[in-house]
Each structure stands twice: as C-alpha cells, then as structure tokens.
Amino acid sequence: MPDARFAGLTPLFAPRSVAVLGASSDPTRISGRPLAFMKAQGFQGALYPINPNRAEVQGLKAYPSVADLPETPDVAIVAIAAEIAEKSITELAERGVKAAVMFTAGFAEMDEAGEAAQHRMVAVARKHGMRILGPNCLGVFDARTAYYATFSSSFDSGWPVLGRIGIASQSGAYGTHLYTLARNRGIGASLCIMTGNEADVTVGECIGWLAECPEVDVIAVYAEGIRESPGLIAAFQAARAAKKPIVMQKVGRSELGTKAAKSHTASIAGDDAVTEAVMAEFGVVRARNSEEMLDIAHTATRKIYPARNTLGVITVSGGAGVLMSDVADAVGLPMPEMPEATQKMLRDLVPFCAPRNPVDATAQVSNDVKLIHTFTEAMVKEGGYASVLGFFSMTASSRRWPGIREQVNKVREAYPDRLYVLSVITTDERRAELEADGWCVHEDPTRAVTAIAAMGRFGAAFAAPAGAAPPIVSPVTLPATTSSEAEAKRLLAAAGIQSAPEQACDSAEAAVAAAELFGFPVVMKILSPDIVHKSEIGGVLLNVGDVAAVHDGYDLLLARGKRAAPTARIEGVLVAKQLQGGVECILGIHRDPVFGPIAMFGLGGIFVEVMKDVVFRRCPFGDDVAEEMIRSIKGAPLLLGARGRPKADIKALAHMLARLSAFAHAAGPRLASIDLNPVIAMPEGHGAFAVDAVVEVG
Fold it and tell me: Residue 510 is part of which domain span?
C-alpha cells in the first residue's frame, strides 16, 4: 500500500502545471532556464511565468504575482533573492500550491539567521500542506514528461537518455554530474532529484517516491549525510517490498569528509559505519565511486537478481580468467567448478582448453564459432550458473563477431532466466545491438564482476524471509544518573541478560564470604558509579586465589580508588566467580544521533582494540539476526571451533545480544550507551555471561 508521505510528493515530482517565480526572458539565466528547457522539450502541462515587470516571458503570458495566476499550479519554482523568498513561500502556501522547488540559496548553509529564516518558511509551508524541495537546490527533472524544474547547464551538451533509473542526490552539482556520466555512457537515467538543504523534503522521502513510481526500476543515490531516519527506513522498506534495487554512494567516511558534508548541506553525517549497517540491513548496495554506481545501476536494469548467485565465466584469455576469478573471490561471488563430465566433453572438443571455470575456450572459437555455442550452453545447462560473463575483448570488433553473436544469443534465448553479461571492446553501434539483444555490456571485466556480485546481494535481500521478532523485555526504568556496575547488572538482569555470579560487598569480611561461596579463584573490582574504566586505575584484580588474598585485595582496591578519584563515590568491592575456558566478546549499545540505538558485537581484546573487527545493527532485532551478526565477523572461527577449540555457546550469545537490543529500544532516548566488556561465551551448552557492565544515562 502506498505510503502517504511519499504519495504527497507527486505534485512536486510529476506536476501538471508549473509556475516560475522570477521568470526571466533570458534563457541562459538561472531563472530563465527552466522555462527554456520545458518549452524546448515539449512539456505538456501549463507554464506560468511570474514577473511583475514583464507582460510576456519567452513567448508565454507573464503574471505579476501568485495571486494573479488563473489557476493554482501544482508546483512553483522559486528563483528569486533570499530576502523576498520567504514572503513568496507564504503567498504560495496561502494560495494552496502543493509544492515548491527553491533554487534560492542563503539559508541554513550560510549562518544562524539563514537557518532561522529556513525554519520559518518550513513552518508556514507545513501549516498549509505544502512541500519544499531545497532551498539551495538544483531542483528536479523528468525527461519522460519534459519537466525541468532545474537550472543545470548539463543540458547544453545533450538531453537525457530515456530509461528506468531514477537518481536522488543531496548535491545538485554532483547529481547532474552523475546524470551526465550516465547519458554519456548511453545509460537511461530519466529522472533526477536534488535535495539541497533538505529543509523539508529529505533524500529518504525522494527514494521512497522513486520506490513507488511505476516508471522507475532502479534507484541510484548520492548522499552526504542523513538528516532523519524514519523517512529513509520507510523508503528502504518500500524499495525492498517492490523489489527495486538501491545503489548508494554515501560519502563522508572520513572526519574531513564528514565536516565537508555538514558545511555543504547543513546535514548530520552521522557515524559512517552505522549508516552502512542500516544500508546492509535492507540490501542497499554501497558503491565506492560513481563509476561503480553506474555499473551496478545499469546492470540492475536487466531485473535479474539471483538470490543464490554463482558466476560462470567463458573467456578467450586465460589471463583475463584469472583476473576475474580474483575479483569474484574478493567480492564474495562463488565460482563453482564445471562438472567433471562436462569438463571432459569440452577437452575432447578442444584438448588445449581449460574447462574448470573460468572456462578458457581459447582463440579456437574464433575459427569455429559453433564451439562458442557448445561451450556457453555447457556452462549454462550443465554448470547451472545464475550469472554468465563472457570475455571476448576485441573479438567483438572483428569480422567474425556476427557469427559469435548469433551463437551466444541462441544460448541466451534458450535459458532466459540467467543474468548475461559481456566484457567486450567494440563500437557504440555494436554495443547498442548487444544491449538490445538482452546482454549487459561492460568494457572492463573486473567492473563487470563487481556489478554481477551486486545483483546477487539485491536478490538475497529481496528473497530474505521476515526476521524473528525481537525478544519481549520488561518495561525499562533507567536510573537518574549512570550507576555502578552492580546496579547496571541488576538492571540488565531484569531483561534476561545474565552476568557471572557475583556479590557487592561493603567489607573485607563480606568479600571473603562471597569468594568462599563462589569458589576460588575470584575476580575483585572496585565498585563505584564514578569510576567507569576500572582497569585503568588498577581497580580490577584477577585470579584472587585464597582468603588472605581476598582480604588484602579489598583494602588495596579501596586505596587505589581513593587515590585515583578522591571525590568518587565508592560503594565497596564487587566479588565475582572467575569464569574459565570461554571466549571473550564485547557487546555494546551506542545511541546514534540519526538512527537511535545501535548494537555492536565483536571479539574482545586485540580484535576490537586493534583490528576493529566489529559489526553493527539497528535495534531491536531477534535471535536470528543476532546470530547472523556473530557469524559475520572475521574472528568468528574462534567461536565456531577453529583449530580444535571447543565451540562457544553461539545460541546463548545470540540470545543475549538480541535481548540487549530489545532493552536498548525499550529504554528510550535517555539511554546513551551500554558496554558489556567482556562477555564470556562459554563452551556450547554452558551459556554466555557479562563480566563487566556499564549503562550510561544521558
């Protein structure tokens, strides 16, 4: 069912009538270009120039004000100075105009006064049900309908290639750069939306509208920072439900890039690792650069997304086969070997071929083009590959190519359910012929492999079943301030998160009694809500082995605590059973400014501190997702019984992680973070226990 927040953007992106405030008779000026573009390309709706100083603009009747228009337009393009734009927005809203595209700059991207003016405009617009794209944006265009609410100079060198890719970009200049790259490669990207400051309409909402647009099959996104998460999450959900792939170039990975994003669009870049985790959750593929984004988007227009992707390669070059195999391995794209019987059959035909996969058919196929059919059909029929990549290099420009093309097309027509890709160097005319046949053509074979791998990631996301429901936890009441470790563990215990057996002790005698109850050795820790990082002050004692050591340890910990933090509130000492034989892990929660509570999992020690081998996920989630997270880290074999180690209790660990995510979600915005470090994952069947816990309250 269509989402109302996305459907409400239709007057903005698919209007029947357009007004242009500040319309110029000069078609080269910013305020004159939209009219010139729409007239040149034949926009079928009504065009209303608004200019109090002219009776006619570019051959169209002009109107002195919004109030003088003969009808209320669907959308208004605002191309006037910032000092009068605010008043114009009020006039448009009161007239009942449903959408405005604001080219005008000088708002939140400039200073506090501009930000205040921007807030006032949005408040007026929302009061009257009007949506604003921008300000400080390059607008939107849809070549299918000749709607050009933009002043981009990119059309001076040519018009868009019609196609079914929609682009959403926070940067206007880069959005038109992407469209121009697509046009120059002959890739059909008819629709491009550029959001600018996102005072109102966000890039997430634009993605959502594209997801529900029947004329768009593939969505390409350029994003610098995410301002709000509900619209983006809803858009990702809508695209996945519609089986529309999203390829996203998210910049701002580095600290410098993040600062640039904030200054450019006044956005909140957020934590890049968190944004990437949210993208992965919904099967959004992240492109490393614009070239890769267009490769993936173009390949996706074939609308074949294998949920269990495998790659079969036929090549006329053994070296290229090795190159493609390396890339497939790097991106996680399986290349199973051909069946032994099929390999023998191919070797009988061409003794010097290499038929394992990649299948090196050698240059012999140029001498006998019928062999191309035999080799390719064997790969598809016997090998059963979901995706087929043919590397023919410059053969596609040779006089023998028409015969080769005929043979490979016979296979493609007989088995149309596969993804077929060619890596060839040829003329634009022959490339267009192959694309029309049903092949996706890439010159570079490594880029082709990367794009094919992305199709499998889309397919897996589209085919994924609904996840298990998150655990149900008791209502969470957080303390007024960050509390001690013992209190944090009591709070988490109510949500079913187990700790090692322990006891808070306010005397040496009580500590001795607790140690004797648990059995030696024990762990002793300073207990204070004001000393979070206990190990840094020597506030943790391990392998405490007898009564005397416990008694002395109690006094030592109190002395160290008072010396390191004289004003700290010290509640005593925590005595805990020292667990033996498990694997140290770290579980945590961080409240992201955009996406809310985010769960983290990794192995403890060097794995998290040096190697940063951690995984993130938006809260809450069920045990199945938690187990998937655990198994996804590079160090997972240490939990799964590598080199004769006992298998850790993955089920118990996953259950703890899922319950932690549910607790964080239930705790609300006052929860700043949770740090369970370490958690000991005991051998299979013996549980997982939090050894240390910090619950930080904001």
Answer: 501-577
